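pls design
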């Protein structure tokens, strides 16, 4: 991932140097396991742990000849050792190292992403509580529907991200696996204890069964989860973008002193951060498709997945890390305009209260059809004449004959629609 859309901590996990460090750790841990079994002398393992190192330029130099990155790596490591070099890669095949190290690297990345998710959820929690009672117009199909609150909108996001956190934990657990089972998964040249030992040392799990590779349904599920989280952020960002339209201006991304919105239009204050989130989510969703394509491998192994994963796993984790932090800051510093929300509620001449008027008529004995057919033409009249719906209702004998002026006035009280906000927040644990 380009530096513009990555953060140093996550980027450091996916460097070539850190990958080789992970490979080396797998190799040394495997030797330590063999020592536990009495196969490799413990003094040789101590020398391996103390002296084994690598030079990246040398790895690349050897790879030019071998055209095999793991062989180039093991030979470069062996050059840093004495007689104990004979134990490097003992009983292993390439993917024993590569897949086990990948699970270890993903574990490192997942620790950062889980922390990011928890932090973002906390931001949403605070915003939901802060704006719990800030009334605004709810919209369905983009059209004014009934009153809601901005806090409820934040609470909805909060609950969705809690679900995403649980999904992520499950997907992370399922991808943080290793396998050291040999060329076709039969442990022909290695004891299963080595696999268990290495994975335990790395903090990952040994695969119950594998071929030469871990099965890529694990990675497809993982990428699907990252894509779903990115899509949630896209959804939230799109909502902010819509509410920042000049016609609404109910919320606005923070605009820093000295910031510019347009090279041609000095007045512009654009939701560029949210647009950035929407755009980057498309990249992760595209990577999800690639991960699904990787599930189908030939027989006990091919490497058609390898080139893809070198791109999509670092890219997706770096992008999501960037997105969670950037969008978290956007939400945390979001400017909210309650007065504009109130004004927008009044722009549609009271027609969003048509459902409440209809319900009151039903309570007075109207059939639902009669009540609907009485209210709808008056609501349409309010739209077309730009008169307040309440005034038209008060001029309608069929309605005023059964509803008092006070009952009509009560039908237009926004608090009726918001009376269960506290109940919803209690259900969410937002107290």
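designed seq:
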């Amino acid at each position: 991932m380009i530096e513009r859309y990555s953060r140093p901590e996550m980027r450091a996990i996916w460097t070539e140097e850190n990958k080789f460090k992970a490979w080396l750790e797998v190799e040394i841990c495997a030797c330590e396991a063999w020592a536990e079994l009495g196969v490799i002398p413990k003094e040789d393992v101590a020398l391996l742990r103390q002296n084994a190192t690598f030079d990246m330029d040398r790895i690349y130099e050897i790879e030019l000849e071998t055209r095999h990155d793991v062989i180039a790596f093991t030979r470069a490591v062996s050059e840093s050792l004495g007689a104990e070099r004979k134990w490097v890669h003992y009983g292993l095949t390439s993917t024993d190292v590569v897949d086990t190290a990948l699970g270890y690297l993903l574990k490192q990345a997942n620790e950062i992403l889980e922390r990011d998710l928890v932090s973002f959820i906390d931001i949403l929690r605070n915003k939901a509580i802060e704006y719990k009672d800030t009334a605004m117009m709810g919209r369905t199909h983009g059209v004014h529907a009934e009153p809601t609150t901005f806090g409820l909108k934040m609470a909805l996001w909060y609950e969705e991200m809690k679900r995403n956190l649980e999904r992520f934990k499950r997907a992370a657990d399922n991808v943080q696996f290793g396998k050291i089972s040999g060329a076709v998964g039969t442990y022909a040249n290695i004891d299963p204890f080595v696999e268990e030992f290495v994975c335990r040392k790395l903090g990952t799990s040994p695969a119950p069964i594998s071929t030469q590779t871990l099965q890529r349904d694990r990675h497809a599920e993982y990428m699907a989860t990252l894509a779903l989280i990115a899509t949630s952020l896209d959804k939230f960002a799109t909502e902010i973008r819509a509410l920042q339209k000049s016609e609404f201006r109910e919320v606005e991304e923070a605009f820093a002193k000295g910031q510019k919105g347009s090279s041609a239009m000095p007045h512009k204050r654009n939701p560029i951060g949210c647009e950035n989130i929407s755009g980057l989510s498309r990249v992760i969703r595209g990577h999800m498709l690639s991960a699904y394509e990787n599930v189908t491998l030939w027989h006990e192994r091919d490497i058609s997945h390898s080139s893809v994963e070198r791109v999509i796993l670092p890219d997706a984790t770096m992008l999501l890390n960037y997105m969670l932090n950037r969008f978290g800051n956007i939400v945390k510093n979001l400017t909210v305009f309650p007065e504009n929300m109130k004004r927008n509620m009044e722009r549609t001449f009271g027609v969003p209260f048509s459902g409440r008027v209809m319900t009151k008529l039903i309570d007075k004995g109207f059939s639902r059809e009669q009540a609907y057919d009485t209210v709808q033409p008056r609501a349409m009249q309010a739209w077309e004449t730009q008169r307040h719906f309440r005034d038209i209702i008060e001029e309608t004998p069929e309605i005023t004959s059964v509803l008092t002026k006070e009952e009509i006035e009560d039908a237009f009280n926004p608090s009726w629609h918001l009376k269960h906000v506290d109940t919803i927040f209690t259900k969410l644990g937002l107290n």
